[in-house]
């Protein structure tokens, strides 16, 4: 008996060892940035997700994940940025903070990609989508971006009606639009940008008039909720994957407000008629199955909005989405190395 047990545990260790060689490293950074819009609370989301067992949830969805949490991002605003804001971008709320935070994030993402196969950026509001994708582009110039959101977030400083910079990050990323930010020195801080044909939006249902003009003028691919209703999620996924260069790595920027407000009520700009949780999971699973997703953002959870129950529901939905992105399969398929330790008594 002693002998068998020892053998079993040797086998177990052997499997652990071979599993260790296929471990995938995942870096996580919290970005408690709330100045891209006017509601307090989004800055609390990274720590709330951690308290809600983010790490354990991800770890149990794929035992091969080797997770490193880099904590929360810090940044400092310098005089050059304040001057840019005063001279050119005084009509945009918190431009200097936006730039300072994103510059720090661009550096942080590159560090995470040197040390990990994948990274996850937890917001904060969606203004940090700029730094997260831009940092990713500096490490991996051949990148495709899937922006899952109720909103297009592609306003220019000249078109934004709200002045909220969380409605603008995509315009900092696209080759064809970043020239409109000519005083932001983007060629120095983030020289690699995204070609418009490598961007696909999913879930849109609240597009500003000028945003619609920009999307159509540049022929940017977007699957708004009406196309999803007409064609269904499987077709939308197929078209999304077809549109993107199959050699590219993928960045998924997930705004929690893409989900319907019944499953994600605690968010600053909730719009009804959104993705069901199942549709969200389905989309994320399909992207995950390409094995090309290298970076993901999860943004706009605001724990100060709604009841305690609303917050709980929103965080639970977010965890389901993240679980599916990082390994969980609804079919039950998984790696068995830590389970196959002799529970069936003897080898068949
Ligand atoms: N990331 C978001 N939730 N963005 C909402 C943007 C709303 C609106 N289009 C604006 O520019 O102000
Ligand atoms: Mn957004
Ligand atoms: Mn949104």
Report on this structure.
The chain has 348 residues and is of the alpha/beta class. The chain has a single domain, classed as 3-Layer(aba) Sandwich (Arginase, Chain A), CATH 3.40.800. It has helices spanning 2-21, 45-51, 54-61, 79-87, 95-115, 129-139, 169-173, 186-189, 209-217, 225-231, 233-243, 277-289, 308-325, and strands spanning 24-31, 65-72, 118-123, 143-148, 199-204, 221-224, 249-255, 293-299. It has an 8-stranded parallel beta sheet, with helices on both faces. Helix 9 (209-217) links the parallel strand 5 and strand 6. Helix 4 crosses helix 5 (95-115) and helix 12 packs parallel to helix 13. The longest helix is centred in the first third of the chain and has 21 residues, at 95-115. The model is unreliable at 1-20 (pLDDT under 50). Pfam families: Arginase (PF00491). It catalyses: L-arginine + H2O = urea + L-ornithine. Pathway: Nitrogen metabolism; urea cycle; L-ornithine and urea from L-arginine: step 1/1. This is Arginase. Its EC number is 3.5.3.1.
